[in-house]
Design brief:
With about 280 residues, the protein is α/β, with parallel strands linked by helices. It has one domain (about 5-275): Metal-dependent hydrolases (TIM Barrel, Alpha-Beta Barrel), CATH 3.20.20.140. It has helices spanning about 20-30, 55-70, 90-95, 125-145, 155-160, 170-185, 205-215, 235-245; strands spanning about 5-10, 35-40, 75-80, 100-105, 150, 190, 220-225, 250-255, 260-265, 275. Strands 1-2-3-4-5-6-7 form a 7-stranded parallel sheet. The chain has a 3-stranded antiparallel sheet with strand order 8-9-10. It is globular. The mean pLDDT is about 95.
Length: about 280
Amino acid sequence: MYLYDYHIHSINSNDGKSTISELCVNAIEAKLKEISITDHFEPVSDNENGSDYDFRSYYYEMMKVKSIFSEKLKINFAVELGQPHMFPKISQKLIESHPYDYVLASVHRLYDGTDLGRVTYNTGNLYLYCDKYLDELKSLAKWNQFDCVGHLDLVKRYAANFNLRVNLMDYRERLEEILKIIIDNGKGIEVNTSGLRQAAGETLPGPEIIKLYRQLGGEIITVGSDAHIARDVGNGIREGLELIEHAGFNYVTVYSKRKPTMIKISKHYPDNSKSKKTA
């Protein structure tokens, strides 16, 4: 099985707790073949330029670890864009100005600035937040300057902390519309394994949505731990790959210079990889 982790944060993210070097050491110990360091770029209304994102420090440390670990681990330049459709010019400028291998895009906040991780969820407001979240996901999908959408049902992570269950399959028509936009644009989704070690108890998105994405014709799919500390690097990756395979995928996707390549998930398939043209 090709083990890799495409969603990892270092101290270059404001919520990261480990250096890139520490992350690499744990990745090698976890027997990963490849990682992407996806530190946050997330403009907000009072900082529309995202000035707390320090690419220079990130780049310096990345070049250092590449020189040290390159024989044992493929290390990709990457970024996680927070709701870039709300700040399209600065987000586009960022990805055009830096040598990213992989661009992950996520919705963490709503249009009014509400941080989904800071909401007090209850049975009275859960539908409202799911509804607003789906609106933002659709806008993000239409923006279309990313490679994959991160943790597609993120509300599930936070609602679970209040003993509430979220399943976006309950909004199937709207979910299908979003997934079809992603597929038609030649983009993909991420299977985020953080939920396996959190209250949600399953990946983001879960098995039903992964299967639906495949049934609708989705092909591009990655897997990431969303680690913010070295010990979580690679956590749940094997389980995530097994879910992806069970959903009907023979391949997962890796990137180099924003170009996707399809890698066989399991050794019992004859081919190792194939290239895929971007849309």
